[in-house]
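Query form — protein SR1 protein

QUESTION: What is the three-dimensional structure of this chain?
INPUT:
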Amino acid sequence: MGTIVCQACNSTIDHFEDEKVTVLYSKQCNCCDGEKTDKANNNR
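ANSWER: The structure tokens for SR1 protein are given below.
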């Protein structure tokens, strides 16, 4: 079972079938705008 997580707000976007437990990070979800994601990336 895998999970797709928003990189900006850490909310769960979706689940998918996989042989291992996996977490993938997406750059943006429907609840975030691009500015939050860009700021999160610049702080790292």
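ADDITIONAL NOTE: The helical segments are 34-42.
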